[in-house]
Write a structure and sequence with these properties.
This protein is an alpha/beta fold. It has 9 helices and 20 strands. Strand 4 and strand 5 form a beta hairpin. The longest helix has 14 residues. Bound molecules: zinc ion.
Length: 348
Amino acid sequence: MAVISGNDEAAVLHGPRDLRIEQIERATVGPGQVRVDIHGVSLCGSDLHYYADGRNGTNSLTQPTVLGHEGFGVITEVGSGVSSDRLGERVAIEPAIPDGNTPLSLSGHYNVCPSVLCFGSPPNHGLLRGSVVLAAPFAHPLPDSVGDDVAALIEPLAVAAWAVARVGSVLGKRIAITGAGPIGLLVLQTVVALGASTTTITDVAPSRLAVASALGATHTLRSGEDALPEAAFDIAFDCSGHPGAIADAARSLGPAGILALVGVPGRAVADFPIGAVQRWELDIRGCFRYGPSAFVDALALAGSGRVDLAALVTSSYPLSEAAAALEAALTDPTQLKIVIDTTSQGPQ
Ligand SMILES: [Zn+2]
């Protein structure tokens, strides 16, 4: 197949709060790969950290990098070994791609394989550009029922689906969730869809708790004002990364409970109830991005309407206003998910 060369418009981060719309060279499509023309990208907390501080956790911006890892688009070119039937397919992009031949990949743990390269993790360019090239199996076909306005959110939903897969069945379980940001709200919807008996969710922001109630939370608690009841839950998901919330989530578990760590812990948890872990046989499970089946599960949840992604989308911006979108996400606490519509030319 002929290689389409040229440039793509991209949102390139040069340093803290220095985002520029520039032309970057299009990658060529190799064997087993596809080109996806990007149609939409939603912003994530990690994009905000890179934009505001030039760093996220232990990773820093060392050279100009295209941001974004939550995206969807349409396949416009296929490499050798990929069926031409896939041309024109709408796809959600699984952005963290391993070397599939490592022992960890082959044993089903590709998400924690050090070989993984993730779009939008500096220095790897992200999805806020005209097109990307990736391994064909990581471009997941989107059902028609998932509209363009929400399709980028399949990625954060895959994070939630993987976290829930990590704890096993939630059917009939009493669930606590600390943090009602986008991931907490998606974990909430996923466990409700899968038959949790009760759901209790905490956050500092009343506006987020109101969304949680509308999405089916049984109870909402304002962090700092009300504490989670102790020994009252079967499974707790920390979706905040806040040390105090992680300790509260652990204390909220009854015997044989499971603590799922989904948020990125900001620092050490000083008052973690380690004695309860031993005495009550609590399990602590880390949840990192998405393992095998998480995207397929997310597409099933969204495609069937059991998870409402539109409830999380609070704004949309064109690519030319990506910096304004990032500023809005940083400064406006009522924002949940902002989508950059890369097909839109005009102002908001
Ligand atoms: Zn993300």
